[in-house]
Amino acid sequence: MATAIQRIAKDLCSLSPSIFHPLRQIQRLPRRLVPSPYLPHSHFFCKAASPQNEDSTQAAEALSRYNDRPWDYLESEEYIERYGASPVWEGYRRNHKGGIPPQKTRKTCIRGDKICGNPCPICRDPNTVIHHQNVKLLQQFISPHTGIVYDSTQTGLCMKQQKKLNEAISTAQDLGLLRFQIPYVKFTGEDFNSSHDAVGSTPPHPSLTSGDTWYKWYSEIIPEGKEVAKVKKAYKAYLK
């Protein structure tokens, strides 16, 4: 049997290589992966999740979480870890040239898709949104002693956010969400006319008693006849 098998192998090798050439081409064809109908597409290839993608997804989830209710962010653990019990503008310093800070803040921190190097306390944190219902955030920009809104040079807000802050505070005060002080005036019921002794003993001005006006040009001015004649003579050709 062994000798017969060896003979058959020799006969096959002696044949023309044209018989085996198409078989070799079939073996060299690329193999295609046929997806199974029972497995989803995510199981075909293994994808490693990068830490950058995870951070971006977490940031997007946080933004969508506080988009409709921005006042919930001030009670979250993220806010407490970042700011603690201090306001959002405490410790902020704007970058500027020289030793003297500018007298006014910048107009805006975000222009299109570009953000400046050191944005203001509101623009640097996308979760801090100025809204008239976000009372805890608005109270951080109001003095508890005087009730006056802090100036932007003290808090570091840009002009755009400062304008939004003033509008939100006025809206919250109109809706009764924020308290504001009204000056107390005590009415004694006294008559504040000029009938007291200091004014009553002072004699009035002679012009008031005589009926003349206080100033001469307040009364009717009658020009002199000579001046009127000169004007008529000069404009005789134009007068009818």
Describe the structure.
This protein is mainly alpha-helical. The protein is built from 10 helices and 2 strands. It is elongated.
Supply the helix-strand structural class.
Answer: mainly alpha
Task: Please tell me how large the radius of gyration is.
Answer: 45 Å
Number of strands: 2
N→C terminal distance: 153 Å
Strand content: under 5%
Going across the biggest sheet, name each strand in turn: 1-2
Total of DSSP H or I helical runs spanning 4+ residues: 10
What gross morphology would you assign? Answer: elongated
Main beta sheet: 2 strands, antiparallel
The helicity comes to 25-40%
Written as H for each helix and E for each strand, in order along the chain, the element string is HHHHEEHHHHHH
State mean pLDDT (0 to 100 scale).
78
Uncertain stretches: 32-47
